[in-house]
Amino acid sequence: MSLLNFKDVGIDLGTANILVAVKGKGIVFDEPSVIAINRKREQTIAIGNEAKEMIGKTPDGIEAIRPLKDGVIADCTATGLLLKEILTKVCKKYSIGRPRVVVGVPSGITEVEERAVEEAIIGSGAKEVYLIEEPMAAAIGASIDIAEPSGNIVVDIGGGTTEVAVISLGGIVVSESIRIAGDELTEDIIEYARKELNLSIGEKTAEQIKTKIGCALPLMSEIVLKIKGRDLSTGLPREEVISSTQAELAMRESIWKIVDIVKSALEKTPPELSSDIMEKGILITGGGALIKNLDKLLNLETGMPVYIAENPLESVVKGAEKTLENIEKLRNILVNSQKRRG
Question: Which pLDDT score, from 0 to 100, does residue 326 have?
Fold first, then answer.
């Protein structure tokens, strides 16, 4: 009898979004990594989309927060409550007991951060928990054969971190990580609006600018977006028009830092693998892969073909799910190869 069943769960514990996949069912949860809690009672009020709508609007005693920062746990209590709520919801819907969980974590995670993730997952009701580095999970999720004796390079641009990994023979040969990714780009836009437009805008508006008109190189045809915010001089609401050129300018410094770590990883890659990568190209995954013209900028700066993964937002969680299907075969790629039991 197969050991695999519907008790296997893959998680992408992202700074911006948490995605959960159930073995055999695919992705069953995809919502913002936000929780609204009553701090006095340590009671969950809302999670995900509902909690995100509460950010900046809660009364005294209620707090809507993102408990994950830069791809790792910043608030253990809130993360534990968030994961418990999500796993309870998923397990109840699919009649799962105590699941085995594979969760994606940033490369170079510290032992303290590793233990925090393990304890949060076990505390949420999991039977066993395995950790896998996000770029490795993303590669598996993007259907790259990680076991083959040739080089592949993956650039995973999430909410809190950008991870670059050169993978060969089931291992990471070169790894680079920077805590600049989607959230930093959003902050760049907020800061640009404040300094250049004298306008205070919220995170939601900045995210809309990033996703709708944000670009790494000027677009062939400039596009504009109407936004609303608070005039910093008068304190009154004001409508403004922002262009894709302005969005590109706002994000430029952070985008170039991402490009630089990709180039750094390529410079450290052994010559034998460099020729493979030149032939296969660079794979971009994560939400940052959707920034317009980022693939073109990387192509110009590296001289290599650049591809965007199919459904880049789902690569890590799909990789976690596929890892569960071959857990014994892929055990050597897990960060904590010795499983933790609850």
Answer: 83
Residue 43: in which H helix or E strand, if any? strand 43-47
CA separation for the pair 335, 137 (Å, rounded):
11
Q: Is the entire prediction scored with pTM above 0.85?
A: yes
Predicted confidence (pLDDT) per residue in 91-132, tens digit: 889 888 889 999 998 887 788 888 888 888 898 889 999 999
| Contact indicator for 288, 315 with CB cutoff of 8 Å | no
Residue 19, Cα to own-chain centre: how many angstroms?
A: 10
What does the alpha-carbon distance between residue 123 and residue 87 come to, in Å, rounded to a whole number? 10
**Closest-CA residue to 283 (of 316, 306, 310):** 306
8 A C-beta contact, residue 19 and residue 27? yes
Name the residue type at position 285: T
Dihedral angle sign, alpha carbons of residues 55, 56, 62, 64 = positive
Compute the Cα dihedral for 226, 229, 232, 236 and give only its sign: positive
Q: Is the pLDDT of residue 3 over 60?
A: no
- Give every CB contact of residue 71 below 8 A, 6+ residues apart in sequence: 14, 15, 105, 106, 134, 158, 159, 160, 161, 179
Catalogue all structural domains in the chain, each as residue range(s) with its CATH number. Answer: 8-137+315-341 (3.30.420.40), 145-180+255-313 (3.30.420.40), 182-250 (3.90.640.10)
